[in-house]
Each structure stands twice: as C-alpha cells, then as structure tokens.
Amino acid sequence: MAGPLPLGDPAPADGRLPDGLPVDATTPFSAYLHVPFCRVRCGYCDFNTYTSSELRGARQDEYADTLIREIDLARAVMDEAGAVRPMDTVFFGGGTPTLLPAGDLARMLRAASDAFGLRDGAEVTVEANPDTVTPQVVETLLDAGVNRLSIGMQSAVPHVLAALDRTHDPENVATAVRAARDAGLDVSVDLIYGAPGESLPDWERSLDTALELAPDHISAYALIIEDGTKLARQIRRGEVAAPDDDLQADMYELADRRLSDAGFAWYEVSNWARPSTGSGTHLHQSRHNLAYWRGSDWWGFGPGAHSHVAGLRWWNIKHPAAYAQRLALGESPAAGREQPDQQARTLERVLLQSRLAEGLPIDDIAETHRERVAELISDGLVDAASALRDRRVRLTLRGRLLADAVVRALTE
Q1: 279-309 burial: b if 16+ Cβ within 10 Å, else e
Q2: Looking at 98-216, which runs of residues are DSSP E strands?
Q3: Which of the residues 34, 154, 203, 237 has the least number of beta carbons within 10 Å of its own beta carbon?
Q4: In the predicted model, what is the mean pLDDT of residues 288-308?
Q5: Ordered structural domains, the chain, with CATH
Q6: Residue 327 class from Cβ within 10 Å (0-12 exposed, 13-18 middle, 19+ buried)?
Q7: Which positions fall inside the Radical SAM core domain (predicted)?
C-alpha cells in the first residue's frame, strides 16, 4: 500500500467543483482508471495496491460496478461545471488491471466513453502483467476499443526479477507481445534498472531482449527506494545493497545508446518511442503520460487515484472498501483537494516539462531564475542552441542524468 495521502482541504461529499473554476473546454481531457489488485506485492512498489489478503471488505468481482458509479458521478460533476469534453486518452493502470476479467475492463471503458465520449484516434492503454495476457484477453480488449498494451517486463534476468519480487515467467513477455502484435495493438514494455545484484551485463541482456521483441515504446526507470517498502527495510537492515548511483548512470547511458541505435528516440527522460512506419515522423509516444507532463486535465477513477481539472487537484480515499462504501452512499470518494498557488504551479511545470525532449519554455521559468540557464549551459546540462534559438530549456544527455539538479537550479 502507498504512503499517506497529501494534506489538503476537505472535499465536498457531492464532489462539486468550486464555483468560478476557470475551466477551459479546449484543454485536452484524459481518464485514468485505477485497478488496485495484485497477486503479489513487489518489494519496491509503493503504489496503492492490494493483494487478496489485504482487501478486507472489498471484492474484485464487484469492482467494475463500483468504479462505474464514480464515472456517473464524474459526468454529473463535470456537466454542472461546464467541463465535459471527449477523452483524448484513457489509461488502465494499477496494480494489475488484467487481473480483472477483460470483460470488466471493457464495461468500465464503455461507461467512460458513454459518459464523456472518445475523440477520433484516442489512445486507450491497458497495463498488463505478462502472465495474464492471452489472445482471448487481447481480443476482448481490442473489441472494446483498447489500442495500446503496456507490458510489465522489468527485466529478462531471473535473479533480477527475484530481487524485485516479480513472479511472472520471463518467457511470457514474448507471448504477451506476440498476442498484442497479432491483434494490431501498439506495444510498450516497461523496464527497471539498478535492482540489488544487477550488473551492467544483466541490464544489457534485458535491453537486448526487449529490443528483440520489437515494441513501439520502451520505458526504462531507475529503481527508486521508497520509504515503507519491503526493499527499503531490507536495505536498512543491511540485507541487500542500496542502488549504486554511478552504476545506474552507466545503465542509463547504455540504454540511451542501445535504444537510439535501434531507432528509438527519447521524448521524456525515462521513455523512448519508435517512429511509425507511415510518415516516419510520428512517434509512438505515450500520449496519456504526455498529458500529465504537459499539465492537461484528467479525472482519476479508483481508490487513491488523483485528478486535475483547471488547476484544482483532488485525490480519492485509498482503501477499496472505503471507496466502495462512499460510492454506495452516493457520495464522492474524494478525500481532499487543493488549488496550488502560482509558485507551486511554476515549480511543477519546471519539474515536469524540463524532463521532456521538447523542453521547457524559458518564459515559464520565474524571472528571478532565468539567468541560471546560462550556468546550466556552461555546465553542459542544457543544450545551448535550443536555449538561444528556441528559448527552450532542453536537457543534454548529462542533463538527463542530473535532471533533479537542473530543476533545483531553476526553482530554488
């Protein structure tokens, strides 16, 4: 289970948005549908997820109906605020969405589409554990309107998967990719590097295996030790070593080099996409994640999910049983909300947009900090030509390795 929810103002029981909220109906709108179920809790994970022994009063077989109640509430709330618009992207995340029957995912998607509509060409993604993907599951998702599958590979090396408490069969990754490919879905694979005991050759093997699958998109995330996780406790007790920063930097550079050589282009610090076979210019980027990084509007459905509309942020109560109880009473499951001030919004914009290959407009940086761009160029962290020609902060490879330092320089 994840850590505590943020502090914030109380959220109204009816979920109503504040009067006068400056909604812009031209802002792209997305939906995130959280499925909080996992067979096994991975030692590094701090997401809001639950194994069967932790549900205490919540049932997986009733979850789709519960979440659809929140969709109905969302439609009424957005309608009253004049904020209804078709969805540009939909993302089923977790947890393991494919632990639910594919028909339940289809019903949830249909309810969201009925409530808000889907724009032509909308991106609809389902995250999946490789062990849960079959041709029948993929066919049901395809028929429902899903067009992208994001497969949690993490590693191709058994001892690395064991260190991460990942229990899937590595051979099933190729089976899952093949099933998605045969159905015509876009395919993304997720990797993690820097696990205890993982060497540079181990990581190279995982990269090579992922590339052999010929996906459209690859995410490669450095392992981060989150407080409260099993892995954090193991490191604190000295049972396993903490990730080595220098080794993780070497792993990132290897990933960028191998992926670039294979025709992938980075578009966010931890994400690479392949050009389409059509025009050769469109990339198979995760448009849903880009909506987050660019500050679009989205409604997060499910326990612990976060939402953002016109600068207002709110988050749902965490436990599935409490979430279901609120909705059964006709109440919003929101636990709290906030409207960040200008300083907080600027910090967030710098934090998120500076990680993108398209870069951050220099004019979006507080005026008192713009002079620091020159220092970052001098330190080799920001591309000089982009700053001078386009007035955008674009990270160099070294800058991507030190992205947090760039953010601090531009905000503190």
Answers
A1: eeeebbbbbbbbbbbeebbbbbbbbbbbbbb
A2: 118-128, 148-154, 186-193
A3: 237
A4: 97
A5: 29-293 (3.20.20.70), 341-412 (1.10.10)
A6: buried
A7: 23-262
